[in-house]
Amino acid sequence: MKLKSSILLTLLLLFLLSGYYLFSIKYFYISTLIFGLLGFFPFIKDVKQKGYFYLILIISFIISNFLVGYLEVSLNKILLIISTYCMAFFLYSSKNKESNMKLYNGVLYVGFIITILGIYEFFLNDFIFKSYIRSDYLVTLSDVAYSSYRIRTFFYHPIVYANFLVILFCINNFVNKSTFSKMILNLLIISNLIMTQTRSAWISFILIVIILYIRNKFILNKNENKKRSINPYLKLALISLASIFLINLAFLFSDYFVEVYSYIMHRVFDLQSSYGAISFYQRFFAFVVIFHEVFMNIDFPHMIFGHGLGTSGAFMKTQQSYISGFATTDNTYLDILYDSGIVGLILIIWLHVFLVAKFVNKNASNFFICNYLIFIATSINLFFYSILGWDIIIFFYLLSLSFMLIEIKIMSKVTRSNIK
């Protein structure tokens, strides 16, 4: 299992270093393809026990592409999608299910390092290791839009980093066995999340916390008033020391706390500003244009099967929508509707309904719940950007989904065997 955990660690590191000299994103793609091939043969051998969702989804995309004869997605994106799914069959252990939780250990270790560097980057007020970053890697943010620095550590955009932080939060709360280190990492995650100034990730984080609370409180009926093993006097002493530390920290860095508070308020109420309003109108414009194109300009088979994977970006560039720095839908679900039509959107809706039914099951494993939260956290963020632009988010999105589908099929098989 350490070997399999190191695979995820290697892929994450290859992605993080892809913007630095001597490295490239192609190493991430090639490694994903190689590890995907390791799981391809187990997938083919036992496909009937694994489920057909991905096959149906891929077939729908192929149909849409053959019908319109157009494909606007590079081969490396397609290979990334397929390889990630196949890789899950190699990584997942059906014999020792408890060990599956250890797959994310490497991600957890990297998370500690990155979030600590994120605090340093905030005080540095500039990119980490800037002199080693390729000039074509970083996305330049508008000075008009953001008066204060948004941290991103090794990621090329604060939005990608913020989404990764929410994923890391889900992993930390299920994989990390140490209560103390779990608490420290959660504080680091929240601090970094605030300093990314990413509203979509804030929404995702809050909803994940609510979902987790609802499951623990109402589905599992966990008793929060059970006795704690910690000595009450020791608990009081720790709270007192922590309070004194936080008060001193507030006095020492009062200017920074004021700055953090001010840009949180600025981002929350950004619709009041001219740039925030433009960003809102951009997304609203994309919503209207896509719906009008799909449902009003009735063109069979495009309305049913879409226009081809990745074509929504090319379509938006023809609509003169470049009013706030981007010419995309900035919404993955609009992309799905345009690219794969009503068929693709129905498949995604069905998938979410199907997984919710499994999530509310009391017998769902911690590994399943962890991956479900990763999947939902990313799914929420997909309302605010196009996923085809963020490789590492595609990877975690599909990997968590694949793990869940594999576990569902295996558990269904076990259930049928017990009945017989």
Short précis:
The protein is mainly α and 420 residues long. The chain has helices spanning 2-16, 25-45, 53-68, 75-91, 105-124, 158-175, 179-195, 199-219, 232-252, 254-268, 274-296, 302-305, 311-317, 332-359, 366-381, 391-419.
Could you describe the 3D structure shown?
The protein has 420 residues and is mainly α. Helix content is 69%, strand content 0%. It is globular and about 70 Å long. The relative contact order is 0.13.
Write the layout of secondary structure elements.
Layout: H1 2-16, H2 25-45, H3 53-68, H4 75-91, H5 105-124, H6 158-175, H7 179-195, H8 199-219, H9 232-252, H10 254-268, H11 274-296, H12 302-305, H13 311-317, H14 332-359, H15 366-381, H16 391-419
What kind of sheet is the major sheet? none
Amount of helix: 55-70%
- The first-to-last residue Cα distance is 32 Å
Quick one: overall form? globular
